[in-house]
Amino acid sequence: MAPQQAAKPRHRAARPVPPPSEAILDIAFHRASLATPKGQSKPERDRRRAELKIVRAGATTVRHLRLETQRFLRPPLTPFERTLVDERFGAGTLDRALTRVRRAEERIRGLQREAEAGARRLHGPEMLGDAVRAYYGRLSSFVREVDRDLLVLRSVDAFLAERPKVDPARPTLVVAGFPNVGKSSLVGQLSSAQPKVADYPFTTLSIALGHADVGFDRLQVLDTPGVLGRPRRTNPAESEAEAAVRGPATVVVFLIDPTETCGFTLEEQEALLRRWEAELPNTRILPVETKLDLQRRDTDRLQVSSVTGEGIPELRRRVRELVRPTGELPPMEEALEETPPEPMVGEPPARRSRRRSGA
Question: Mean pLDDT throughout 230-237?
Answer without folding.
Answer: 72
